[in-house]
## 1
Amino acid sequence: MTTDIDWDNPKDPRAGSWQRDHVRQYVASDGAEGQFWNGTQTLLLTTVGRVSGHPVRTPLIYGEGDGRYLLVASNGGDGAHPLWYRNLTEHPEVRLQVGAETLHGTARTATPDERAAYWPVMLRH
């Protein structure tokens, strides 16, 4: 794990956005408010900005498969990958908050076979 990253003080989504409100409620309640949201489950992903080098926190819908947390970098159907995914391609070390639990890990892009196996899991979310 990179020791010079201040994982405890990430940049949150922009002020006034629903994402920022979601993150703030999630953190303040240790996930009691926000982990289960609009009929699905969410986690907080903290990546390291590929340009800034500073941690950035994003609320995301997730699934689980084979002991892994699964995320889809769809960017709401946009043709470009979301910023958090682009951050991961430069710096795969991450921090996750799932409910009250905080974990550090290394993210990676699923292989084509994994995508085929995990896609049905994510369609349920």
## 2
Amino acid sequence: MKKLVLAIAFIGMGSFAMAQQTTPQDRETRRAEMQQKMQQREQEHLAQMQKDLNLNPSQVAQVKALHEKRKAERKAEFEKNKDMRQAKMDEMKAKRAQMDADMKKILTPEQYDKWQVDRKAKMEQKRMAMKDKRMMKKPMNTATPEVK
């Protein structure tokens, strides 16, 4: 019975992993769509600010310039910390590999295989929970409705 359950789990994980693979073209397409959505959101946000705050064209231009400046600062900060993030990721991979090696020494081959399947399943659950959490986020425009 246990072997049957493990076999089904391996098949399920294998088919799920195959479904998650994307090509570089898909990634580029998705990235372009996301950039277009972000630009649209920025324009909508600016239009909403103009409407809510009754901004004149000069103020709209200044606000837009300020947003662009902040966007450039965030991008520069991101690039500045890129090496540090990569170093942390490499460190985490090394620690994970060490943990894996240590567990392989401690556990029997059957126990080790089961541990790996359980660990991958938990990681996938966390990944799906994070994806759901991102989908559940409220839109940026949370302005209070007008009172008449």
## 3
Amino acid sequence: MIRQSAVWAAAVADVLLVALFVVIGRRSHAEGLDLAGLWQTAWPFLAALVVGWLVSLAWRRPLALWPSGVVIWAVTLVGGMLLRAASGQGTQLPFVLVAAGTLALFLLGWRAIVALVARLRSRRTAS
């Protein structure tokens, strides 16, 4: 059974990484880092992230790359873009592609690292 602390740590990591994605994006376009601007950019992705967690039942296996991580990434990307479009924010193809890559790196990357470390530890203890 997954410990509650792992679920919370994974959820917080995902939220912080989506926030980092927003900060990096706003800075790269010389947009302000004021709270209102950050929230305007972040809320569609954060809302979609929550939906991704619900759809994937991520609390059952929050550290798993598949299916939790992949579903969370896909729902965060697609849902975030749909919410951006519905709220009148841009969804140009270059932005979608950069968001897809960055969110994959962030939301899947840390899970891949956790899986690699776990695999290396299990090999070390088996030897």
## 4
Amino acid sequence: METRRTGRISDPPCDACDVVTVPTRQGLEAVDILRRGDGEAVGPVMHDDGCDTLGFVVPPGTAAAWDVPGSTCTETDGRGLSLVPAAGPPVRGSDWLLPPGEADPATDPAVLRAALGEAARLIEAADSCR
């Protein structure tokens, strides 16, 4: 998988992309961090209807090496993940926070890992101030 200088991934076959799932608070912080960068380092992001988790679309194969505590990475093999906004929600009980077409094809896993780490540190710092 080729990474461009902007932190974006060259168009992966997203019909088989993996999904990194994180708690909503950490995920929203990570989205903010990613969008503050060059504005295009984040791919499609979905949320569940209960707003408990966010799912970041990442290139296929990411799940095999994903090791970020507090998150999971699931292989989709194209099952239940439609990256066509007009097709409706990506999976039952979810909707797009950042729909395909308004984002990169997928989030670079290394960039996401760094953003999730920074988000965790920000949350920990904010919570310790209470």
